[in-house]
Description:
The complex is a heterodimer. Chain A is α+β, with helices and mostly antiparallel strands. Chain A has 7 helices and 4 strands, in the order ααββββααααα. In chain A, strands 1, 2, 3 and 4 form a 4-stranded antiparallel β-sheet that branches. Chain A is elongated, with a radius of gyration of 20 Å. Chain B is an alpha+beta fold. In chain B, a hairpin with a 2-residue loop joins strand 1 (3-4) and strand 2 (7-8). The relative contact order of chain B is 0.10. Classes of the chains: A alpha+beta, B alpha+beta.
Amino acid sequence: MENNRVALQTSALVVDTFREASARKIIWGFFGCSTALILFFLLIVRIDVVQGAVATMTIFGKTGQAQDVEKMVKLAHGGIAVVLYIFGMLLAVLASAGLIPTIFEPGRIELLLSKPVARHHILLGRYLGNLLVIAANIFYPVLAIWIMFGVKTGVWTAGFIYSSLLTLFIFSVYLSVVLLVGVLWESAVVATMVTFASPLSA
Amino acid sequence: MQKSFGLNTLDRVAREPIGYLPENHRFPTYMTGRGMLDFYGALSGMDTETRRRRIPELLELVGLPTWGDTRLGKYSKGMLQRVGLAQALIHEPKLLVLDEPSDGVDPVGRRQIRDILEALEKKGVTIFLNSHLLVEVELFCKDVAIIHQGKVALQGKVTELTAGSGYKVEAENVPEILATELRARAKNVAQNNGSLAVLFDNRDDANLAIDLLRTEQCPIERLGRVNSTLEDVFMRTVGGK
C-alpha cells in the first residue's frame, strides 16, 4: 500500500517534469537537434562494404581509404560519442538548470509542500524526471546512429551504447550539483555557473 | 515542535487530512485544470480511479465543468482561485486552510465559494480562512482571531465581538432645542434632509430620546440596535479609528 503510494507520487512528479520540459520546448529542442544529427549522418555517410572491409567510405563527398569495417565503425562511434558527450552535456545542463529551481518558485513550492509527500521525495522525483528527460534525448540519437551504422556495415558493437550510459551517469552527477545549487540558491543561472565550474574545481 | 493532528508537521502523514490554498499561488500554466487536479490528487496519494471520478465532480462544484481541458494560462484570476479551491478539496480533507480565497473573484464567484464552504462546513470540515476582506469573514466565519504584529490580539465568536455597539433612533422634523439635547447624550449624530439619526451608547438614553420625540410628536423613521462591523472591531483592536 505504502509502496503503491510512493510509486504513484513518484510517477506524478516524473510525468510533471516531462510536461514542463515539453511546455518549455526542451524536449522538442533536443529532439530537433538529435534528428538533425541523425539526418546529417544518414545523408553524408556513405559506406560500401566489400567482403568484410570498407571498400570506400564517403563523408562530405570525399572518399577515404579502405579500412577494416569494425575499426572504422568504432572510430566513427567514438567521434560521435565525444561530440554527444561535450555538446549533449552542455545542452543537458543548460536545460536542467531551468527545470529544477522552478519548483521552488513562490506560490508553487507551498502547494507541493502542503501535500503528504516528504521533501526529499519531491526533490528526488524531480531529479528522476529530469534524468529521464535527458536519458530519452541521449538514447534517441545514440540508438538511431547505432542502428544506422549497424544496418549499413553489419557491425553491432555495444561500446557505443555503453558510452551513452556513461554519458548519462556523468550527467546524473552534474544534475546532483544542479539540484544542490537549485535548493541552496533557487537560481537557474547560479546552478548553471556552479555546475560548469565544478569540474574545474575538482 | 509544531504539531498537526498530534503529529509533527514535517511528518507527511500529518498533512494528509489538510487541504491548502495559499495566497498568490502559482499553478504551472502548462497544465490544464484537469491535469493540475490530477497531479495534486496523485501527490495526495489518490489512485487513478478515484481521481478520475473526483475531478469532474470538483470542476462541477467550483463552476468550471467545461474548463477542465483548458490550460491554466488562459484562466482568469477568479477562475484560478476556484480551481485552486478544487485542488485543496481533491482528497476530501478534514481541515481546509484557505489564504485569501476570494482574492480577485467577482461577486458571483465569491458567493459561489461561500456556498461551497458552507456546504463543507455542514459536512463537518473545519475551515480556517485567512482574509483581509472582513465583510467576507463576517459573512462566513463563526470564530475569528485578529492577528496584529504577529500576535493574536483578539479572539472570539463573531456574534459576540460585533454585538452591542449601540442603539440608533432616526426621526424627522426634530425641533432644534430637542436636537441639541439629544446631541448632548448621543455617541454619534447624523443629519440629512430634515432627518436626524442619533446613536446612543445604552438603552436608557435611547428610551429617553424616544419619549422626548413622542412628546414633541416627531415621526420616528427607524429604531433599533446597531452592531459593530468586524471592520470596526478590527480597527479598534489594531488601534486605528
